[in-house]
Amino acid sequence: MTGPNTPQGDIVVHVFGRTDVGRTREHNEDTFTVADLTTMNASLQPEVRTHVTGSRGTFFMVADGMGGAAAGEVASAMATEVVLHEMDKRWRTSNDTDPEMFAHALRVSTEVANTKIHAYAAAHPENRGMGTTATVAGLLHDTLYVCQVGDSRAYLVRDGVCSQITKDQSLMQKLVEAGELTAEEAEVSERRNIILQALGPEPVVKVDLTSQQVKRGDTLVLCSDGLSGQVRANEIAEVVRAERDLVQVCKKLIDLANEAGGPDNITVVAARFEGEGLVETGAEQPAHRVYRGSQQQRSTIPLERGSIPALAAMDIADMPTLETELSVRKVKTTPQSNAPVDPSAATLEVSPREVASGPVKVGVKGPAPASGPVPETVEIAPVAVRAKLPPAPPAGGIVSPGVLRVVFGSIAVLVLVVYVISLLRA
Question: What is the pTM of this model?
């Protein structure tokens, strides 16, 4: 990954993409997109086919639609359009330059595409059940981030070896991982097209986010299962190794799939990475490597200012940290389990691990300002904990136990005297 030992210099991307209907299908439900995110040029014009990566990186995506009639075409087209639009809004036009936020934007953009496709299908009953796979890749500096939903694939060809860097979200993949089938048996199974997840059919999707350090001379290949189902990884490596022209790489790979029967639509995006900004040696071997940014290492909740009251019914027993995204800036709280307690404070920062359960009240620290910037902190005050806080001491200080004994003793004597007098008068 990018670090102090990363070479200084440009990173050059050579890229091309191609899609084909295949030999069996009547129409093409696959879609792909390539874009220079710095200029927001999404095309295969010469200025994109070979370009120096700018500060916002480069974007690649393949989507394989499904759903019958034209629903698959609609789903895959929506996916590429929405993800690219969201990347423009969440990353390209932002002031953030943190690679972690780039990875976060890729994942969230993919999730937004799922939400919009699902909503579209709900509003159009004739397209109910529509969906699409999505393999979304983004290169920023020397790191390639990949978001995966479904069974389209990403391969990285390095030193003549083709390695799959995504995992199919399919029934066959689960059976192989469980040891029920070998990879060879899965390739010829009649159930190999059963996928466990896609964008659109369900309201929520789990995106598999991975990352790789890119080495000089690496070639990325994204494809739909129309290629991966007919052409093996070693055949992809042979084509990439033998052909420098990426136009010919895409054409020859599609030809191989068609020669094997072409039972499905076939889409290929190939990108070769060059330049002094990439290492020549020392990079880890390509593999499915789950991305673990700091945001993925703690529980987080995206939150709009207007939705803060909705937290009132939330159980925070399993939340080590609550992170909120307000309308203009991000603020967060970190529980202070060892912090001294101020009994007069309006709210108390506590570790959720110390709270068995109960509603949560969220409020901005101190009185709300009449105007000015958004406060930098948000404190979390579990109601059950706040109810147990001791009352504030009197202004004169805390009364000692000795003084209390004298006072209560005098009262007792006085009561006894009054009682004796009343008896004598009787």
Answer: 0.70
